[in-house]
Amino acid sequence: MYRNGKVLVGKSGKKDVEILLNMANRHGLITGASGSGKTITLKVLAESFSDAGVPVFLSDVKGDIAGCALVGEESESITKRLKNLGVKDFEFKSYPVRFWDLYETGGHPIRTKVSTIGPSILSIMLGLSEVQEGVLDIVFQIAEDEEWNLIDLKDLKSALQYIGDNKKDFITKYGNITSQSIGVIQRSLLALEHQGADKFFGEPALDIHDFIKIDNDGRGVLNILHAVELFNNPDLYASFLLWLLTELFNTLPEVGDLDKPKIVFFFDEAHLLFNGMPGYRLKQIVQIVKLIRSRGIGLYFISQKPTDIPNEVLSQLSNRVQHTLRAYTPAEQKIVKTAADAFRTNPEFNTEEAILALGTGEALLSFLNEKGEPSIVEKAIILPPQSKMGTIDDMTRNKVINNSDLIGKYEERLDNESAHEKISQKKEEEELRKEEERKKFAEEKAEKERLKAEEKEKKEAEKKRKEEERQKEKERREAEKAKKNNPAYKLGKKAVNKAQDKILNKILNKVLGKFFK
Q1: What is the mean pLDDT of the chain?
Q2: What dihedral angle (degrees, nearest 10) is formed by the CA atoms of 342, 347, 352, 357?
Q3: Is 417 helix (H, G, I), strand (E, B) or coil?
Q4: Which of 96, 158, 281, 388 is 20 to 30 A from 186, comparing alpha carbons?
Q5: CA 253 to the chain's CA centroid
């Protein structure tokens, strides 16, 4: 219940145990064994924040938080609890709810672009090693440099295929890109599609400001993620919540300390967020948890054991609710001691014993006081929710969805030009260029072969001509020789020689006669 700037969570005897609204963005933790009442506490907090005009986001992994959309129902047990608590101004009511669903069935679709979610969180979704994540980093950088808009998985697969086929063109500038890593990423994307994650990537992308809405009565809207199916894919569930956390941090401006948070996020089954998280990424998350308070955002983690949350994150969670734990082994007893040591001691009871003895709907509570200091731990009974407890039918869910002012904004998927189309066009242009190069090469080759044939033909013609000339010369010489060997020719030649000698002698005698005269 919300009243006078405070969230009444429970009562310890006649003492109210409350969260100060201006301290609600100092983050919080709700832990306890299964069936201890964590969901009830979660609903009480969410309803109270809504009444205070603070929007809330929470995931519904069992389907029983959806009842916030309906008026609570009075029962004998609730009436008895309220009487024992001495709460007289309790009112059953419904709350302004918006349902969301990654799978587009139980609420407004939630989508984002592949380029927006980034390689780090996508690597978590895909279960990549550090080396494979490095290759994915390169793929995203190439896409940015080439102005490929990575919207959906189709775009990413096209980019991976193109870069893998042409990795030699990129290695010098961007670093090593192995076919093995490309193959692992492609197979992991296929597995992610089988989980239905392809619905998460696309447009129109979620506007995170649509989570931060107030209804006409001044109450904060409860944004409920229908996560019953999503929770069956723990890696995708955890990655989605991490993306929301980083998206909030990167989108919302710093506002400093406010009278009340701008929005409160509840991360149910929070242990999934940190399972197997490498140290370098945990540092990033810790930094966000530390700084996101300045954006006016409160984070509340819900899990079974406080040890599910890394110590670096635990140290930032100031408002704490501890439901009962069960300790049958030394390891479990150690967890109980760790949980007890996190509270300021109340001299009226032993904290460890109290944790083990708490009944359903009871909890140890410690919230920040006006000075920002943790209060002494109190053993309290949690108030009942004011809205309906339990699930709702599909007809009621659809009615809430169709009455939302966001209906029609996200339902129709867009298919704008993106990396897939650009890469396909690039491939076509390259294929056309290669075809032209092949055609040009073929033409040049044909021209070379034609010139070679002409040159060969010319040489053969020249050879034939010379051969004919040699043959003619040979025939001429043979004819000449035959002529000379002819008897008639020889006799004629001899007669000619005699005549020539006679004429020559006559001339010579005449000349000599004149000379000696």
Answers
A1: 90
A2: -130
A3: coil
A4: 281
A5: 23
In the block, tokens 């001044």 appear at 218
- 156: Cα within 13 Å, side-chain hemisphere: 31
Report the DSSP pairing between strands 319-322 and 2-3.
unpaired
Is the preceding peptide bond at 310 cis, omega within 30 degrees of 0?
no
Handedness of CA 228, 233, 234, 235 (dihedral sign): negative
84-109 per-residue burial string, b: 16 or more CB within 10 A, e: under 16? ebeeeebeeebbbbbbbbbbbebbbb
Q: How far is CA 91 from the centre of its chain?
A: 44
Contact between 143 and 116 (Cβ < 8 Å): no
Collapsing DSSP to helix, strand or coil, 266 comes out as: strand
Per-residue confidence at 296, pLDDT binned at 50, 70, 90?
very high
Please report, as a single letter, which amino acid is at residue 253.
P
Q: Per-residue pLDDT tens for 175-191?
A: 999 999 999 999 999 98
* pLDDT-based confidence at residue 284 (cuts at 50, 70, 90): confident
Element (H, E) at 261: none
- Residue 505 pLDDT: 81
3-state secondary structure of 8: strand
Lowest mean pLDDT among 95-104, 289-298, 485-494: 485-494
Phi, psi for residue 60 in degrees, rounded to 5: -110, 95
Confidence of residue 517 (pLDDT cuts 50, 70, 90): low
DSSP string of 456-506, one letter each residue: HHHHHHHHHHHHHHHHHHHHHHHHHHHHHT-HHHHHHHHHHHHHHHHHHHH
> What's phi and psi for 228, nearest 5 deg?
-60, -45
- Distance of alpha carbon 294 from alpha carbon 258, whole angstroms: 9
Query: Which residues, 6+ apart, have CB-to-CB distance to 270 below 8 Å?
Result: 301, 302, 303, 308, 309
Amino acid identity, position 212: I
Tokens encoding 411: 């339902």
CA nearest 241: which of 251, 231, 232, 255?
231
Q: Rounded CA gap, 441 and 437, in Å? A: 6
Report the SS3 class of residue 379. strand
* One-letter amino acid of 232: N
Q: For the stretch 495-513, what's the b/e string if a residue is b when 16 or more beta carbons lie within 10 angstroms of its beta carbon?
A: eeeeeeeeeeeeeeeeeee
- Whether residue 503 is predicted with pLDDT greater than 90 in this model: the reply is no
- Contacts with 132 (C-beta within 8 Å, 6 or more apart), sequence order: 123, 126, 181, 184, 185
CA distances 168 to 127, 189, 301, 427, Å, are 26, 23, 46, 16
- 493's tokens: 């030649």
Nearest one of 225, 222, 285 to 61, comparing CA atoms: 225
User: Does the structure show a pLDDT above 80 at 494?
Assistant: no
**CA 468/CA 460 separation, integer angstroms:** 12
Among 332, 323, 384, 331, residue whose Cα is nearest residue 354? 323
Structural contact between residues 19 and 7, judged by C-beta atoms closer than 8 angstroms: yes
